[in-house]
Amino acid sequence: NQRILRGVWSHRRKTTPSGEVYRYRSRLCVDGSQQQYGIDYNETYSPVVQWSTVRILMILAKIFKMKMRQVDYVQAFPQAKLPEGETIFMEIPEGFDVGDKDASCHCLWLLKNCYGTKQAVFNWNNYLTAGLQTLGFRQSEHDQCLFLKDDIICVIYVDDTVFFAKDDKTIDKMITALKTLNFDLTDEGDVEAFLGIKIEELGDGRLKMSQPDLI
Fold first, then answer.
1. Digit-coded pLDDT (tens) for 155-184
2. CA distance 120 to 138
3. Closest residue by Cα to residue 177 from 132, 144, 139
4. Whole-angstrom Cα distance, residue 162 to residue 160?
5. Are 102 and 138 in contact (CB under 8 A)?
6. Which of 9, 76, 85, 189 has its CA 20 to 30 A from that of 152?
7. Band of pLDDT at residue 213, cut at 50, 70 and 90
8. CA of residue 208 relative to chain centroid, distance
């Protein structure tokens, strides 16, 4: 008596703020439009960092000569397990090899959080928040996506994260600590772009934010 949701492929060209294509991505997703509230999902809300928080931190980073580093989580959502009691079945997606079995008579039982479900962002945010708190971060009362620690600050926007610290060594140590918690992530280096916003350091100490591809 379980609903079997449709599996779909999402294909996307990822671009820089200037509009240049730098990656082609294919992602297996669940068709969340088939889900019904109270049956297939409950909570869906997930906070994102306020842009005022990001701007203030970048200003403080310039004043106090702090390092800024961006990290990206590889296939972020499936890194989180589905909460206990949450069961999702998905049809065999196109191109999935089931050997000599009849694909129409089988389905996939998801054990991990999957893109496309209505609760996917909610589950991922809970997983990432718990991981940061395990490493000693405390969540700000003023912005739920601002995390503070004695020697490092972190802001998150879904699966985009920026760290602020006095030196690179502190950030390197935190990235290593996240990996020990089984977070699969890549170090993107200095913050040159964040959420489609191009960020440039001008020679006189100012920061310039722009979106040239939208002009």
1. 999 999 999 999 999 999 999 999 999 999
2. 23
3. 132
4. 7
5. no
6. 76
7. confident
8. 25
**Do 83 and 123 form a contact (C-beta atoms < 8 A)?**
yes
Tens-digit pLDDT profile for residues 48-104: 999 999 999 999 998 999 999 999 999 999 999 999 888 999 998 888 888 887 877
Sequence-separated (6 or more) residues with CB below 8 Å from residue 77: 113, 114, 115, 120, 121, 123, 124, 159
10 Å Cβ neighbour count for 167?
Answer: 13
Compute the distance between CA of residue 123 and CA of residue 159 in angstroms, rounded to an integer. 12
Q: How far is CA 106 from CA 37, 92, 98, 115, in A?
A: 25, 7, 9, 21
SS3 at position 126: helix
Cα 83 to chain centroid, rounded: 18
SS (H, E, C) 23-78: EEEEEEEECHHHCCECCCECCCCCCCCCHHHHHHHHHHHHHCCCEEEEEEECCCHH
User: What is the distance, to the nearest Å, from the Cα of residue 102 to the centroid of all Cα atoms in its chain?
Assistant: 35
Which among 195, 197, 194, 203 has a CA at the least distance from the CA of 68? 194
How many residues does the structure list for the chain?
215
| Structural contact between residues 110 and 89, judged by C-beta atoms closer than 8 angstroms | yes
